[in-house]
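Run log, item B.
One chain of 395 residues. Sequence copied directly from the ordering sheet:
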Amino acid sequence: MTVRAALIGLGFATQELKLPGYLAEDNVDVVAIADPDPKARAAVAERLGLGKSQQFSSYEELIGTAEVDYVDVSTPHATHLPIFRLAAASQVSVVCDKPIAMSIAEVDEMIGLVERSGIRAGVHHNFMHFPSHAEMLRQARAGAVGRVESVSMGANSIYAPGVLPGDTGWRATARFAGGGILMDYGIHLLYLSLNLLGEDFVPRTVTARADKRRIREDADVEDTVMVHVEGTDGRTATLTLMWGTGTSGHTLVDGSEGSMVIHHASGHSAQHNVADEIRVVRTRDDAGTTVPIEWERLPLTWYYGGSIASFAQYVQTGTPTGVATLDTARTTVSLALSAYESIALDRPVEVPLAPSSPLYSLGIVGIRDLPIAAGNVILTRDLYRRCEKAPGDPA
């Protein structure tokens, strides 16, 4: 018996990246869609073969009308919690794009809703299913470089809809997005790094710096960020990210007995790009070995395919194999918000983030409640300035 899914939010992520995975997944039937844009509804409905009765202008109408097993949410981050509340009240399972929520308090509310309602819930940490990252994790767990001591990831000049000069949209607005490139693409790098460092890695401090250099003038979020996570045992993850017009970067793991790096022959080397091999070097004089990666570039079924299949199986069986649960999502959101607090305070921040922090309860909306010193980038670049709710904003 196939699982019945509904798609809420039909923008770029759904149309370009998520639909190929659903169209290729035999275990899932998309039986309903929702978006306020009639053109988006028509375009997606045509690709899925859906009739008018299966198209809705709001998530409220869809959840209240359609018979579905779960909803897959690709909407501005600030809207995730109200959708989650309604789905839980209607006994409909939920999977969301990352970040799952705007604050730790919101994630905790979601966890409580799951416990009381009995629904299944998860977040698309879809990069974990990519052939490159899945193979690197296998190599790390097999001891290819000994104990993983540090992870370094860069995502440079990464394009995202709505952030460049001349663009419009919610992604460059703090009160909708919950932050800039760190909350958007950086979440991917956080969960990838944590998985490579292993379950015994316990973060101790987060140090971060940010700037706004090249995105649209009216944006009030960072487009450039550096994050350094240090564990209780001294092991580290170091991440650098920047929005832009291209796609380049690196993924490097250093271990007690060697190092390994993901290699991209095309030159497009960010974490979401198709890779060709993993190169493992164990000594200074070692020429290294290569682990080839099988990866069909098109169609983009792989972008969400593994995450979709895993969540559908979870809905059917109750076993979250390969699924990023809300507890996992809470960890990444907590680290991201700790990084924002570090940016505001110009110092390392201990993790987990203290419940007394305004970021814990409010997310980025509360960042200016912190004691920000004159000359801090948040003030000089006027970041996160529009954090007050405005009429017509998502709930």
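Observations after the first pass:
- Residues 127-296+324-395 form a domain with the Dihydrodipicolinate Reductase; domain 2 fold (CATH 3.30.360.10).
- The chain has twelve helices and 15 strands.
Flagged for discussion on Thursday.
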